[in-house]
C-alpha cells in the first residue's frame, strides 16, 4: 500500500 | 523527480516571471489582484518556514527554488502595494481575503497529518494555496476582462498544480508515495481553473481577448 511519507515537494 | 513535477515547477516559475515582467514592463498592476499575490506570499512563507528556522547552505536547487518563490512573491506584493500602488485596482479587488484565510487556518487545525506547529503551517499553506487564486478570478469577473498577458500568467499558474496531479499519479504508481492532503487540495485548486482554462483554450489561443460574460 502507498505510504504517506514526508512532504518532499515544493 | 519526474517530468510532471519538473514541468510543474517550471510552469510555476514561468507564472511568477510572467506576472513580474507584466507589472515591471507596463509599470502597472491593472487587472492584477493584490490580495491573491499576498495570499501566495503567505503560502510560500508558511510552507518554507524551515528556511528561516534552521538555515542550511544553499546546497541544493530545492532551497534555491524556495528562496526564489518567497522573494519573488514578496517583491511582486511590493510592486503592487507600494511602487505601482497608483495603478492598483483596489475597487475591483474586493473579495474578502479573511473568508479564505480563516477557514484554511481552521481546517488546518482540524484535518492534518500531525498536530505540531510546522505541520499545521504546512497544511494551512496547502489549503490556502487551493483558494488563493479566487480574488484574482473574482477581479476578472468584476472587470469583465483579462489582459492577454494576465491570461498567460493564469494559464501557467493553473497548469502548475494540474501537472502536479499527474506527478502524484506517477508517484502513487511507481513510488507508492501519497500525500493525501496535498492531492485533495491540488485537485480542488485545479478545478477552480477549469472555467478559465476553457476560456483560455477557446479564446486566447486564437488571439482573442478574454471578455466576460463569455
Order of helices and strands of chain B: HHHHHHHEHHE
User: What percent of the residues of chain A sit in helical stretches (DSSP H or I)?
Assistant: under 10%
Counted by DSSP, the helix tally of chain B is 9
Overall radius of gyration of chain A:
8 Å
Shape of chain A: elongated
Domain count of chain B, please report it.
1
* Low-pLDDT segments of chain B: none
User: Can you count the beta strands of chain A?
Assistant: 0
Most extensive chain interface and residues per partner: A-B, 8 and 18 residues
Supply the number of helical segments of chain A: 0
pLDDT averaged residue by residue of chain A:
87
**Range of strand content of chain B:** under 5%
Secondary structure: number of strands of chain B = 2
Low-confidence stretches of chain A: none
Query: Major β-sheet of chain B, in short?
Result: 2 strands, antiparallel
Q: How much is the radius of gyration of chain B in Å?
A: 17 Å
Strand order of the largest sheet of chain B: 1-2
Shape of chain B: globular
Give keywords.
heterodimer; A: 10 residues; little secondary structure; 0% strand; elongated; B: 214 residues; mainly alpha; two-stranded antiparallel sheet; 9 helices; 2 strands; ER retention sequence binding (chain B); transport (chain B); ER lumen protein-retaining receptor (chain B); protein transport (chain B); ER-Golgi transport (chain B)
Description of the molecule:
The complex is a heterodimer of chains A (10) and B (214). By secondary structure, chain A is largely without helices or strands. Chain A contains no helices and no strands. The radius of gyration of chain A is 8 Å and the shape is elongated. The relative contact order of chain A is 0.30. Chain B has 214 residues and is an all-alpha fold. Chain B has one domain (3-209). Helices cover 71% and strands 2% of the residues of chain B. Chain B has helices spanning 3-26, 34-47, 50-53, 61-83, 98-110, 117-131, 134-143, 148-174, 180-202, and strands at residues 145-146, 210-211. A two-stranded antiparallel sheet of chain B has the order 1-2. Chain B is globular, with a radius of gyration of 17 Å. The interface between A and B is medium-sized, with 8 and 18 residues. Chain B: Belongs to the ERD2 family. Chain B: It is found in: Cytoplasmic vesicle, COPI-coated vesicle membrane; Endoplasmic reticulum membrane. Chain B: It is a multi-pass membrane protein. Chain B: This is ER lumen protein-retaining receptor. Chain B: The chain crosses the membrane at residues 36-55, 67-84, 96-115, 121-140, 182-201.
Amino acid at each position: 500500500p502507498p505510504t504517506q511519507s514526508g512532504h518532499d515537494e515544493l | 523527480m519526474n517530468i510532471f513535477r519538473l514541468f510543474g515547477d517550471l510552469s510555476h516559475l514561468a507564472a511568477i516571471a510572467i506576472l513580474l515582467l507584466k507589472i515591471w514592463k507596463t509599470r502597472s498592476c491593472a487587472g492584477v489582484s493584490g490580495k491573491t499575490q499576498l495570499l501566495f506570499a503567505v503560502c510560500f512563507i508558511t510552507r518554507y518556514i524551515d528556511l528561516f528556522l534552521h538555515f542550511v547552505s544553499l546546497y541544493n536547487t530545492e532551497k534555491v527554488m524556495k528562496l526564489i518563490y518567497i522573494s519573488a512573491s514578496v517583491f511582486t506584493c511590493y510592486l503592487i502595494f507600494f511602487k505601482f500602488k497608483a495603478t492598483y485596482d483596489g475597487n475591483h479587488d474586493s473579495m474578502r481575503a479573511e473568508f479564505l484565510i480563516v477557514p484554511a487556518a481552521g481546517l488546518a487545525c482540524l484535518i492534518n497529518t500531525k498536530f505540531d506547529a510546522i505541520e499545521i503551517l504546512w497544511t494551512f499553506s496547502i489549503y490556502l494555496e487551493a483558494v488563493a487564486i479566487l480574488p484574482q478570478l473574482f477581479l476578472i469577473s468584476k472587470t469583465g476582462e483579462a489582459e492577454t498577458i494576465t491570461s498567460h500568467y493564469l494559464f501557467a499558474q493553473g497548469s502548475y498544480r494540474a501537472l502536479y496531479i499527474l506527478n502524484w499519479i506517477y508517484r502513487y504508481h511507481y513510488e507508492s508515495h501519497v500525500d493525501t492532503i496535498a492531492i485533495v487540495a491540488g485537485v480542488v485548486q485545479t478545478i477552480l481553473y477549469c472555467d478559465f482554462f476553457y476560456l483560455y483554450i477557446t479564446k486566447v489561443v486564437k488571439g482573442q481577448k478574454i471578455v466576460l460574460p463569455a
